[in-house]
Task: structure prediction
Amino acid sequence: MELTLKNLFDGNFYHLCTEGLEAEVIVRDNEDFRVACNYIALAAWRTRVFIVAFCVMSNHFHILSACKNRDMAERFLRLFKQMYATYLHNKYHMKSPLKGVS
Result:
């Protein structure tokens, strides 16, 4: 059998995207970038989702995940958004800075 990522996890690929409310800047400096990257890794580990690739931009994120089903991908994204929204709230006193987080 050919060794491919699809064979390793026996699941699907999901393109996940999240953004700030009203295109607000949510990654303002190097610390924000490092925290976002670490939270992506932590949320992936906690939810057992493989991260194939990601792009952190100033006002949104793109994440290509690999997991067994859509529910796993949604759990990952929800956890990541909760953690990063809490970080933004604590650092910048932003209220609900990400779409879909209350």
User: Anything to note?
Assistant: Residues 70-92 form the longest helix (23 residues).
